[in-house]
Design brief:
2 domains; about 75% helix; DNA-binding
Length: about 200
């Protein structure tokens, strides 16, 4: 058991080093030697876990997605909260946005990785599967919202969930690349406005 734990810790160490290296140098200029330097280990050790840069990159993407999944679970990703569905959707979507230093660093690297999904079938599968799981999760929440009267009966929950994921990705892009009017507060306000339209607060009788 200890040996397995040490193995996983080493892989995590290398993954975090990869993210730091890509964040500093960009994906195209990052080498296995750069990752080894960031991790404070030999390039031979890195290669003992990942024989090629492609294997390392795939592991790095999986690590990023796992970090996002863990944040979602922390706000009730395995079930809806006691409060309104809208409240859960807002807090879940908020975890996907670059609204603190850690998430900004991770999502900056995510933007570097995205172009590889156009040419690497495994990267494409990872991105597609993760996006699909995210859409499924929001679909489940919106179906619950419809049963509770928060979502209009004629709305298609899956279409609305897919649109929400795309909207959050757009906010992420502009927060990281455009800046300016896309401050942290402005991004939160935009998400709030979007959900006001999607899940309006029912009028009091």
């Amino acid at each position: 058991m200890a040996r397995t734990a040490d193995h996983e810790q080493r892989r995590r160490q290398v993954a975090e080093a990869l993210l730091r290296a890509v964040g500093e140098r960009g994906l195209a200029r990052t080498t296995l030697a750069d990752v080894a330097d960031q991790a404070g280990v030999s390039i031979g050790l890195v290669q003992s876990y990942f024989r090629t840069k492609s294997q390392l990159l795939r592991f790095g993407v999986e690590y990023l997605y796992k970090q996002g999944e863990n944040r979602l679970r922390a706000v009730g990703g395995d079930g809806l909260p006691v409060a309104s569905v809208r409240d859960w959707v807002f807090r879940a979507a908020e975890t996907l946005l670059p609204l603190d230093g850690e998430r900004r660093a991770e999502l900056t690297v995510w933007l570097e990785f995205l172009p590889t999904t156009m040419s690497d079938p495994e990267m494409s599968r990872l991105h597609r599967d993760t996006t699909g799981a995210l859409v499924d999760m929001f679909t489940q929440a919106l179906e619950e919202a419809r049963r509770g009267g928060e979502l209009t009966p004629d709305a298609d929950a899956r279409t609305e969930a897919a649109d929400l994921v795309a909207f959050v990705d757009g906010l992420t892009l502009h927060r990281l690349v455009t800046g300016g009017v896309y401050s942290d507060d402005a991004v939160r306000a935009a998400l709030d406005t979007y959900l006001d339209r999607l899940l309006p607060v029912p009028e009091s009788p």
